Structure formats: structure tokens, C-alpha cells
Give the backbone structure.
Amino acid sequence: MLKINFCLSLPDKIPPEEARQKIKLLHDFCANRAFSEVGSIQDFEKEAVEFAASVIPEHVFGFKYKLAKEGPEFAIKLAKFPDRDRAPLVWYFEGNVWIPRTVEPDLYIIKYRAFFSAIDEANMIGFQTRVEDEAGFGTGRSIARLISAVKRDKAFLDPRDVLLG
């Protein structure tokens, strides 16, 4: 399973209605792409997050989705924190996503690329993004590199064995 870690943020000056509209634009993009399921936009429970101390966000909204029908459900949420205890001074979300090894390689690659197209769309909408992926696809968007990583992952090979072997 190749994990993609990602972060989305918007400037803190953006009012909640505008941030919600940007999430809706991203939601609509994902719903019309190769995502298996995309839930409706919703408000999420405001749970404390640890920074210098526990901080409860002022707003949390987003949507749930599945990249692959056989895979787990994930969420993209935006949270706005009060200005205290080293909480980020932006609308912020950090999460990860992965596709189970049980997904066929061709579909796995389609879903992986679909997620990256959503990240590209988030940038176009106005989000700041940061992405790190275990396949190395995010750097240069090399299909050959992604195929190689998926083959290693499917065979449960340690990349060091492939490189040193």
C-alpha cells in the first residue's frame, strides 16, 4: 500500500463562506473524476487538536470519499483554529490516503493519478498544497516510476531489495 500524505491550506483572512465554496469546488471536481464515492459536504465534529496545548477549531467542514470501492473511506476537511497555542493561522487540513493492494494494478494507477489530479485542481482553486507520496509520483509525475512502485508494492518487495538486489 503506497501512502500519499498531503496538506491543504487557505489564508486565514478568507471568510468561512468562501472557504466552504472552495471546498465545494474541490468536492465537485472529485465527484466527477475517478473517485469511487464522494459524500456530500458536511460539518464535522470540532475535536481538540494538540499544538502547544489542545485547541478546538472554530469551523470544520469538508467531505468524505473513497478512491477505490474496495478501499477505506477518507475525508478532506478544512479547519479554522483560534489564534492561540501555536495553532496554524490558516484554514488547514493534513491527512493521508492509500489504495489497498487488492485493487488491480491498472485501476490502482488510475486512482492514484485521480488523487493527484484533485491536488492539482485544489491548487487551481486557490489552496496551498503539500504532497509527499511513497511512489515518488508527485515529483515529475513519471508514469514509469508509478508503475514500478505499484509492481513493488503488489509483490510486497522492499525498494532496497530491488535497488540492491
Summary: The first helix runs from residue 16 to 31.
